[in-house]
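Researcher: Re-running this chain for the archive, since the previous output was lost when a drive failed. Same request as before.
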Amino acid sequence: MDNNYKMLAKTLFGFEDILAKELTQLGAMQVEKGVRNVSFVGDKGFMYKANLGIRTAIKILKPIHSFRVTKEEDLYKNVKNMKWENYMKATGSLAVDATVHNSVFTHSLYTALKTKDAIVDRFRDLEGVRPDVDLRFPDLKINVHIDRQRCTISLDTSGESLHRRGYKSATNIAPINEVLAAGLIMMSGWDGQSDFMDPMCGSGTMLAEAAMIACNIPPNLMRKEFAFERWEDWDVDLFEKIEESLLKKTRDFHHKILGYDKSPSAVAKAKENVKNAHLDEFIHIQHEDFFKTQKSGHEKLHMVFNPPYGERLENLNVEEFYGNIGSTLKHGYPNTDAWLITSNLEALKFVGLRPSRKIKVFNAKLEARLVKYEMYEGSRKAKKNL
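Model: Regenerated structure tokens:
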């Protein structure tokens, strides 16, 4: 049995609560929310499990050393004194990335370079050989975080950002990040107990993430590699056992997931991505202009979408476009909970409907809102009277 240790899951602004809930449900201990991160305790098996099964984490870091820095030499000296030979071979490769909030270290690239120098100098002094730098596929990926006078050195267990699930071979203009899509869908309360729709589905990210949530499929099964697979203590048998245990928890889904897009190329890309993810039995994608559609049937519909806005589509008449969203929902989609994300906060005024929820989130670096419109069967007044 492995010893437990502290880890840190990084996420997007506003997703800390969902991530903490995911980690707790997966079995993490001592779960504590930070800003854009959640710390927790687990063993090696749980580290594998978190990378495979968490939907709203961008990275899972394993802190291995922390110290005080007041000047440049503090960083170099402390990093060089660490026993890096316990983590990699002198003939191996490494990559370092850094985030800094400090008056001495103001440049993250310089901080990463200084850290790398200290590690390779240690190996050169000890063994006369130095590791190579490989930014794409290193044997060891190291994260440096300096906040004021505290420096934390972590091993990056994930490698490439966890939003790269592995199912997307085709994208369109400004595709939504998979972690963002999963978080928005979870925030919207989607539980797989009704039909789901993305009426402007682009390359199909919302659809794929909704299907995986509905069926409880681990989001990162399709990943080609995690960073920990190159570590000295990589345990393939344990990893396969964890994978198998997660797959046993998948569940049946008895509703429909529907995607529309008015661009034929987007429809083709979405179909390709959904097929790559082996989710095509759950998802139906059609070439349709949402503004010319209406809901079929009376069952409850759960809708989440990311409409285009000025930054993504030039020559978009924002007032008309968002007005059409409102009128299509109002006249064509009764008994629907419709959620949309936009960073064009002015545009929401043109929808002409009153949102019942507004949640602040970020889409990349753009401040955005996730808003909910509740469309009732008949009028709202009639609903209240009932």
